[in-house]
Amino acid sequence: MAHLSFFRLLSLALRQLLRDARAGELRVLFFALVIAVTASTAIGYFGARLNGAMLLRATEFLGADLVLQGSSPANTAQINTGIDQGLEHARVVEFSSVIATDSGIQLSSIKATDNNYPLRGELRSAAEPYGTETPGKGPAPGEAWVESRLLAALNLKVGDSIDVGMKTLRMSRVLTYEPDRAGNFYSLTPRVLINLADLDATGVVQPGSRVTYRDLWRGAPAALVAYQEAIKPTLAAHQQLLNSRDGNRQIGGALGKAERYLNMASLVAVLLAGVAVALSASRFASRRFDASALLRCLGLSRRQALLLFSLQLAILGGIAAFSGALLGWLAQFGLFQLLKGLLPDEIPPGGIAPALAGIATGLVALAGFALPPLAALGRVPPLRVLRRDLLPVPPSSWLVYGAALFALGLIMWRLSLDLLLTFALLGGGLIAALLLGGLLLLGLRSLRRLLANAPLAWRLGLGQLLRHPLGAAGQSLAFGLILLAMALIALLRGELLDTWQNQLPKDAPNYFALNILPDDKGDFAHRLSEFSAQAAPLFPVIPGRLTHINGEAVQQIVSKDSTGDRAIQRDLSLTWAADLPQGNTLSAGQWWQANPPADALPGVSVEADLAASLKLKLGDHLTFSIGGMEREAQVSSLRTVNWDSFQPNFYMIFQPGTLQDLPTTYLTSFYLAPGHDQQLVALSRAFPAVTILQVDALLNQLRSILGQVTLAVEYVLLFVLAAGLTVLFAGLQATLDERIHQGALLRALGAGRSVLIKTRRIEFGLLGAASGLLAALGTELISLLLYHYAFDLKWSPHPWLLVLPLLGALLIGGAGVFGTRRALNASPLTVLREG
Amino acid sequence: MGPSILIAQNLSKVVPSAEGDLTILHELSLDLKQGDSLAIVGASGSGKSTLLGLLAGLDLPSAGTVTLAGNDLGSLDEDRRAQVRAEHVGFVFQSFQLLDSLSALENVMLPLELDDRPDAREHARSLLERVGLGQRLSHLPRQLSGGEQQRVAIARAFAADPAVLFADEPTGNLDSHTGERISDLLFELNQERGTTLVLVTHDERLAKRCRRLIHLEAGRLVTPLEP
Question: What are the ABC transporter domain coordinates in residue numbering (chain B) (predicted)?
Fold first, then answer.
């Protein structure tokens, strides 16, 4: 026996495994591993496939090799430089405008392209909604291609006409794919593609309108480099050069963030599954002490005994990991399905790598969490065959925790998590868990005293919880946190926008009108008053970019992803006003002095949060680039702004008389009671350049996107819930022998099955209810803080959260009774046999 | 001696095994009167515990009948048999078999509560005082010594005033001095309450204190039952 070959041991391990599997011994361990691998594979595939989609489009992402983008057209010299380099050129102009038909209006994202567009990738369109796609160049003059959702929104069909500004165009095809729209995941408004030749006739683009001009270039790499070098010194502040890498980086940033959060969820799932693996592996080990002692007596070496049991777990782990990888691969389709419409339609398959990484995660978790308890099997003294009370020396806690931590570290490294964020969350979670766990424990103890005179089943159920108080508190906490996360997401999705909308005044403006030309200003205000719309004043708007603070370039001052960073990445809407607008309050400095000294810089009033992010103080010198010209101003006051008022609000308000010489459009907001669509159509036809934004429609779009995203997050949380359930089952399995014994004893003493069932229901129902209560209180507390501090909304309690204790009781009660059903059927005779 | 309380007729127990059917008990009959005491002795594997399980209705015979307090156990399902046990039977086990999650008092209350007795608490308290544990009511089993645990188990066994008390090696896990005191207690209560006592034991002194004794060997009666 002592000279068993590896293969003999392997076949022995396999046979033993089959025997154990038939006995249902290793089910929990198996499922815990499957869930860990499924979660990490699914999320791995999600990330990999999205990155793949980005890479696939790397060249066609911009529809070109290089793009010169600006809020004003590129100058002739800039264009000629490219043409001189022998590059191909195409022009694109993008802006938002209202599409009017006889039945209504729809804000759309208009894109006018010349006949060269696109230079990379291809346009695709269909003759009818959801028809067969065909590639080809864009619409001819007089035609428009539209996304099918525009047809749906305005109840139109292909062949009908639409008005873009003053120009009537025939919708000739349904636009299905634009190469340079791949990254535009969050586009709220439907696309209308028109020919650049029709642009002037629309009359929409006027000086001061918010428009993006793109010059697309394609050519040999050397020529592109030469062009870049030549053009860089000539770039105005509103212009930037984009190559495929830049485009990807932006999208990559947003995606990377989403992926990191999903990875955190998968880490939690793996962690919970790891706990389940550790619990079941330790039961696996302790039930094999006798077998191990016997094998040692029969001449097996410690190493061989250990190898035999390790092989069993390794085979099991391998099967579980492969099943998990397969399930994870299937599960990611669900995730993509939930996010359909927000993500590019075409996503390349992720290859085998995410599956392999998922399998590796599962095996590392198995090794980290199962090997320490297993190691005890090698140390079972052979004398145990004579003296059953002899137990192996337990592994040192260094080994146990060290292996688990090492495994976790490996997995975290693989997920390339933000370590600081992860540790902050895990640490915060741990402290919260300790505090809440202590409270729960106290609660259970006092419940025990309170229930001293309660019926038998209650005392038995509660007593069982208190037999393993730490386990009970831990389980209740884990489920509490999972339920909390799900409830919080549901709450935010279902309610936040509603609450915000409900708390707006009834007559808060529901439309914004942008791009009102100075000549139309008076007429427009008059027309609004005609259909008794309550309008805010008209504010002048000049797009301009903040470039320097006290002579220093702004890029060097602000931190990444801050309010200030976002504000300097785009044109700000600059305005001037004589009086402090409604809803604004001065927080520092003074409003304009009646007569500023002639030689002083013009004053500018800055919104307080932006000022804080840009580290601005009173008296700072700001330099703006406006339509290719530089303007200087001095910070004269800081303002707080009520952003929820739906009044036009501005980050920067200039002193009157300082920007008047620049091309200006006007902006206002107004309230129009529902049912005035015809007036809007008339308004939009009368003022073709004016863009009318419908707040309700935008909110509805936002709501549907929010709905999709939260659904996807909850989908991922389901894995975490499943992992939590495996921990529950592993915990139950660890106490199953004890429960079977208790069940048998109670039956011997004359208890009917109903008493046993009732006891279990009470025990697990209580556990679940405690989790639910914890989740409800936690959700309520977090929502209170969020409403109060983050959203500045009036908070009111959410009675529906009281469903959570009930839900927890049903979920965990059901799982618990199911997991211990063997204890109900225990023969009372076993108490004699054990005695 | 009162009327018959426990009657076994031609009791056999056969279990299937790899080598064919294995007969553990072979056509065994006995008749116990109210207040009687019976010791079942024999070597390991002779079928003692199997017989005890059948008599107490914890298991069903392959052939023959058991009538306990007028109930034919073979004709009842497990829940009805549990009901019979709750009403008429008490148990004392070698390894005490107290519920770890319940206090001493609650362990003794258990059979009374299963029987829906309103005075469970008072009755259990007086029994614990009777076995000398009046000061340990709220202690959990792990806080008690072996002898104390067995005294709680005895109090529990007598709590519902059972007609028959089954004891399986009641002194097996105790040292001889403690064992002696436990068996004294068992017989005192048996006398006081007129309970019928059936015990399985290796302990000859304990066996001799019973009025009747049967010796089992390979599932057969070797010492004829004295009338």
Answer: 6-225
Give the model confidence (pLDDT) of B2-29 as tens digits: 789 999 999 999 988 878 888 889 999 9
B227 within a domain of the structure (yes/no): no
SS3 label, residue A298:
coil
- ipTM surpasses cut 0.95: no
- Which chain B residues have a beta carbon less than 8 Å from that of A835? 49, 93-95, 97, 168-169, 172
Quote the number of domains for chain B.
Answer: 1
Percent of chain B with pLDDT over 70: 97
**Looking at the domain assignment, is residue B226 inside a domain?**
no
Window from A2-6, A267-271, A636-640, A763-767 with minimum mean pLDDT: A2-6
Cβ separation A460–B111 shorter than 8 A: no
Residue B202 in any domain: the answer is yes
Cβ-defined contact of B56 to A748 (cutoff 8 Å) = yes
Which range marks the domain in which residue B68 is found? 4-221
User: Which residues on chain B are in Cβ contact (under 8 Å) with A472?
Assistant: none
A–B CB contacts, 8 A cutoff, strictly below: 87
Of B52, B100, B114, nearest to A750 by CB-CB distance is B114
Mutate which: A749, A829, A834, vs B, most B CBs within 10 A? A749
Residue B168 inside a domain? The answer is yes
Q: Is B24 on the interface with A (CB under 8 A)?
A: no
A833 in contact with B, Cβ within 8 Å: yes
Look at residue A249 and tell me if it is in a domain. no
Determine, yes or no, domain membership for A625.
yes
Cβ-Cβ contacts under 8 Å, A463 against chain B: 99, 101-102, 106
- Structural domains in chain A (count): 1
CATH number at residue B210: 3.40.50.300
Question: Is A194 part of any domain?
Answer: no
B89 touches chain A (CB under 8 A): yes
Residue-wise DSSP of A211-258: EEEEEEEE--HHHHHHHHHHHGGG--TT-EEEEHHHHHHHHHHHHHHH
A790, A495 Cβ separation under 8 angstroms: no
- Contact call for B86 and A456, based on CB within 8 A: no
Identify the helix (H) or strand (E) that includes residue A638: strand A629-641
- Residue B208 and residue B196: Cα distance in Å, rounded? 16
Q: Which domain holds residue A621?
A: 534-671
| pLDDT (0 to 100) of residue A741 | 84
Region A541-557 average pLDDT: 84
Q: How far is B208 from chain A (nearest CA, A)?
A: 22
* Residue A598 domain flag: yes
DSSP chain B: --SEEEEEEEEEEEEEETTEEEEEEEEEEEEEETT-EEEEEE-TTSSHHHHHHHHTTSS--SEEEEEETTEEGGGS-HHHHHHHHHHHEEEE-TT----TTS-HHHHHHHHHHHTT-TTHHHHHHHHHHHTT-TT-TT--GGGS-HHHHHHHHHHHHHHT--SEEEEESTTTTS-HHHHHHHHHHHHHHHHHHT-EEEEE-S-HHHHHTSSEEEEEETTEE-SPPP-
Burial class, B225, CB count within 10 angstroms (exposed 0-12 / middle 13-18 / buried 19+): middle
Q: What would the pLDDT profile of A161-179 be if each residue is shown by its tens digit? A: 998 888 899 999 988 878 7
Instruction: Tell me: pLDDT of A682 over 50.
Output: yes
